[in-house]
Specification:
Number of domains: 3
Order of helices and strands: EHEHEHEHEHEHHEHHHEHEEEEEEHHE
CATH architecture of the largest domain: 2-Layer Sandwich
Strand content: 15-25%
CATH superfamily of the largest domain: Dihydrodipicolinate Reductase, domain 2
Distance between the termini: 41 Å
Oligomer: single chain
Strand order of the largest sheet: 14-13-12-11-7-10-9-8-15
Structural class: alpha/beta
Number of helices: 13
């Protein structure tokens, strides 16, 4: 049996443990939990984990729990503080993204791991998904030659989640570069085998979501529910994503504002890589239905490799030969097949049979790039990306 201690037993970490982690290692057991909402956390535990002991602190759980590994699944603002403490224990660690939400947190996290023997799997499933790995294999095998340019998009069909659920709390998320693009900027650096060194970004706020509806308003209390496109009834009628149950108004004043902080409706970043390549990334959160898209196009003098996770297709075009090819990936896997790969990495790390493909440095590089993008969008200028070790 592998004994796992969990800090913050929320829906995401719970789904990973009960799904991919246990699929790879059926004898994995949650034996300790640190979570102030013991009642809610216990309700989310699987039957085989119901005897887990709840502790007041991480240090107490590590001292008394006889743990084989740790997982941190708290709200985003607590990822770094708990990971900084975990760095001292040298237990294999699964850490949710983003690994930090501020420069102070990120620098402190980097320093904590400088002398640490704590091996980490950062929750970056896109990087290790089969489609992304295939694209990386092609690029590494000179399918495009020297990568010169990349275009990446993320048209999110379920974007209302960032206004109707707790993701709307800007103090905890610090916006959607950190909350969402942290995945994408990581896999782009992986594909190009080069860190991002400079960013120029733009964003649009309060053009679609947010507004002046009363704070605390739910659809069931709203006189406009019959005509509002975001009501549960109309979402079901039109086949659009988002909660089909009573939910908080996505046009409410409690979604925040530019003055107090709020998530962006869409944002884009011009990216410069250390290799000399450059590219652009765009994320859009009001997209619906078949407009969903997420993937990248990497090009060089010799060819172009492009893929999209929603179509599960990768296309390779040879620029100087009459050949093009399209390959199809399997469907139905969590995070496009990346979560099960992370599970294999984490269980292998615990058993000492495998190294992490998403170590702490990947989380730090991504968060430094995302913080630069956030600052650039807010200030309207190019921003240099902090590099690890500087």
């Amino acid at each position: 049996m592998l004994r796992l201690g969990v800090v913050g037993y929320g829906r995401r970490i719970g789904s990973l443990i009960e799904g991919p982690f246990r699929a790879v290692e059926p004898e994995l057991r949650v034996v300790g939990v640190v979570d102030p909402d013991e009642e809610g956390a216990r309700a989310r535990l699987a039957t085989c984990d119901r005897e887990a002991v709840f502790y007041e602190s991480l240090s107490d759980m590590v001292q008394r729990g006889r743990l084989d590994a740790l997982a941190i699944g708290t709200r985003c603002n607590l990822h770094a503080p708990y990971a900084i403490e975990a760095a001292a224990y040298d237990l294999p660690l699964f850490l949710e993204k983003p690994v930090a939400i501020s420069m102070d947190q990120a620098v402190a996290l980097e320093r904590a791991f400088e002398g640490s023997d704590c091996p980490v799997v950062v929750s970056f499933p896109l990087r290790v998904s089969p489609l992304c790995m295939l694209a990386r294999d092609y690029i590494a095998a000179d399918a495009v030659g020297d990568p010169v340019h990349v275009t990446a998009v993320n048209y999110v069909p379920y974007g209302t989640v960032y206004w109707e659920e707790d993701y709307r709390d800007f103090a905890i998320t610090q916006g959607l570069f950190l909350q969402k693009a942290t995945h994408d900027l990581d896999y782009l650096m992986f594909l190009l085998a080069s860190p991002i060194v400079r960013v120029a970004a733009m964003a649009s706020w309060e053009r679609v979501f947010g507004g002046d509806r009363p704070a605390g308003l739910f659809c069931s209390e709203c006189d406009d529910a019959q005509s509002c496109l975001e009501s549960p009834e109309n979402r079901a009628r039109h086949g659009t994503d988002g909660s089909r149950e009573d939910h908080r108004c996505v046009f409410g004043s409690d979604c925040g504002s530019r003055l107090t902080g709020t998530n962006e409706d869409c944002s884009s970043a011009l990216l410069e890589f250390a290799s000399g390549a450059h590219g652009v990334y765009t994320q859009v959160f009001y997209t619906r239905r078949d407009a969903a898209a997420r993937g990248a196009t990497v090009s060089g003098y010799l060819g172009t490799v492009s893929f999209d996770w929603y179509t599960n297709e990768l296309t390779r075009v040879r620029h100087h030969a009459p050949f093009s090819a399209t390959e199809h990936a399997g469907e139905g896997a969590s995070h496009f097949g990346g979560d099960i790969e992370l599970a294999h990495d984490f269980i292998g790390l615990i058993r000492g049979t495998q190294e992490s493909r998403t170590p702490i440095d990947t989380g730090l590089r991504s968060v430094y790039a995302c913080l630069a993008a956030k600052e650039s969008a807010e200030r309207g200028r190019f921003v240099a990306v902090r590099q690890i070790g500087t």
